[in-house]
């Protein structure tokens, strides 16, 4: 016998806007995906399960979102992507967006870019896209600790894929990400092979998912070589001037190399090294992350960890199209390896 409905949640008034798919799922004793299937692909469910969900829907007065309810009968062929205010990672999204758009076009979809609001308005911008344009699905980026978007979309049965992990809480939905820890670890390995023994790290303030991931790879590689030492890590916002000030204590402490969490932070290292009369790659080696378009143009050229952003875009769209085709399939997660691009800023340890 299947489990009976959960009697614990109170039954809101008929038509209450506060009723969510998750609440219906708890009352029916099923998953939110099962509720979504009952609304959108009922043929996937056993008759008794379908009846239990429908009874919970009726009793709680749940009204599914128009876009989620009509996915099987109407498709806008639009996939939403929110462009967020400038921040770490935004400057290298062009390659990702091109691959994403190209893959979507090949499948008959168009990417709809919109200005994603922040704070309390963040989810409202997604709600408006669903209501005004009937967007079929979303691609998310800049995922972070406490990010509400994945759970919000999952709860409403809206297909989505994320460029980035959840980093905290329940891991829901499909995602593609780049292994940042592997990238910074590869930078340390190359620096060690060049004779460096005091390798610092300049990262973003603690609490950034991708930033913490990159810092962990640096620390893990140092530990593997017995090179851990206090005072070799500094933090800065993604700003050249701030990064130059933040890295100065590392230079004063005698580091022979710095691995940075972004190319912008690496530019701050360039400025700080130049301020002491040095040259990156000679007195102090510098390695960035993202291999942005400016990296090969610097003098000396900036060594940097390159993300396979084209592959990320293609994989993200593949996962999203598969999710739209089969809402009940298990979540899929893809972690892609980056590659270290060696340029003149990565040299042998001096002395």
TrEMBL record:
Keywords annotated in UniProt: DNA-binding, Transcription, Transcription regulation
Domain of life, per lineage: Bacteria
Gene Ontology MF annotations: DNA-binding transcription factor activity; transcription cis-regulatory region binding
Positions of transmembrane segments: none
Pfam families named among the record's database cross-references: LacI (PF00356), Peripla_BP_3 (PF13377)
InterPro entries attached to this UniProt entry: HTH_LacI (IPR000843), LacI/GalR-like_sensor (IPR046335), Lambda_DNA-bd_dom_sf (IPR010982), Peripla_BP_I (IPR028082)
PANTHER family registered for this protein in UniProt: HTH-TYPE TRANSCRIPTIONAL REGULATOR GALS (PTHR30146:SF109), LACI-RELATED TRANSCRIPTIONAL REPRESSOR (PTHR30146)
Name the UniProt record assigns to this protein: Transcriptional regulator
Domain HTH lacI-type span(s) in chain numbering: 19-73
Database matches in PROSITE patterns: HTH_LACI_2 (PS50932)
Alphabetized CDD domains for the sequence: HTH_LacI, PBP1_AglR_RafR-like
